[in-house]
UniProtKB/TrEMBL annotation:
This is Ferric enterobactin transport ATP-binding protein FepC. Keywords: ATP-binding, Cell membrane, Ion transport, Iron, Iron transport, Membrane, Nucleotide-binding, Transport. Pfam families: ABC_tran. Residues 5-240 form the ABC transporter domain. PANTHER family: IRON(3+)-HYDROXAMATE IMPORT ATP-BINDING PROTEIN FHUC. GO terms for cellular component: plasma membrane. It is a peripheral membrane protein.
Length: 262
């Protein structure tokens, strides 16, 4: 398996609290990798470490053969894009101005704002359905609208690797599918996409590589058709279920067991 981004022997946590220990992870190049698991299992912590937002307590993360910790910030920002779980926009900033911030890693002393930057920002807003909100202030928008604006900013960064922490948060079902379809299209265009998702059926439908976590460890990983079984769902989520073929895609579809009636 070819991988630009991987980690070995990782211990991850906050202050004295350890979330994961002796963790090995590899993101296949060109994959749509989805990390799933119950609440507080370490999914977002792992993603934050892959984005260099969180420094491992032990172990090493490597990108393109060099320790992630040694990468210059601007160069890293042109390679890894991150949509964090909770993002706060500056007061009074408009949608267009926030999305334009995704172009900052491409600026420099000899390269200022260009027609290409304008094209990328407009295309990112169109792709996420926020073009008609360009002049609105971000803090006026609904939660779902704000989420799509943050995704647009990540797209405008135009990185070959895109990390998304729960990108469907606040979105209704139609917009969830739109965002995941967009992620799938980006993957098909050659980007490596890594996302944390809560919905196992969405993960099974869209992922090309699935990482299932529980209690700070990786329980299983691989193609969804190989990984998503009733036994795995019971082990990871404590849920009795059947796994059938999705009638639309043929991917695994988890059907929870019916509630027993008295």
């Amino acid at each position: 398996m070819n991988t630009r981004l991987h980690g070995t022997g990782l211990t991850l946590g906050y202050d004295r609290r350890v979330i994961a220990e002796d963790l090995d992870v590899a993101v296949p190049d060109g994959s749509f990798t989805v990390i799933v698991g119950p609440n507080a299992c370490g999914k977002s912590t792992l993603l934050r470490a892959l984005a260099r937002v969180l420094r491992p307590k032990a172990g090493e993360l490597v990108l393109d053969g060099a320790a992630l910790a040694t990468w210059p910030a601007r160069r890293l920002a042109r390679t890894l894009g991150l949509l964090a779980q909770s993002s706060i926009a500056p007061d009074g900033i408009t949608v267009a101005d926030l999305v334009a911030r995704g172009r900052y890693p491409h600026q420099g002393l000899l390269r200022q704002w260009s027609a290409e930057d304008e094209r990328v920002v407009a295309g990112s807003m169109a792709a996420t359905g926020v073009a008609d909100l360009a002049g609105r202030e971000v803090d006026e928008l609904s939660g779902g609208q704000r989420q799509r604006v943050w995704i647009a900013m990540a797209l405008a960064q135009q990185t070959p690797i895109l990390l998304l922490d729960e990108p469907t948060t606040y979105l209704d079902i139609a917009h969830q599918i739109e965002v995941l379809d967009l992620c799938a299209a980006l993957h098909e265009q050659g980007r490596t996409v890594v996302a944390v998702l809560h919905d196992l059926n969405h993960a099974a439908r869209y992922a090309t590589h699935l990482i299932a976590m529980r209690g700070g460890r990786i329980v299983a990983e691989g193609a969804p058709g190989e990984v998503v079984t009733a036994a795995l769902v019971r082990e990871v989520f404590g849920l009795a279920c059947r796994v059938i073929d999705d009638p639309e895609t043929g991917t695994p579809l988890v059907v929870p067991a019916a509630r027993r009636r008295a």
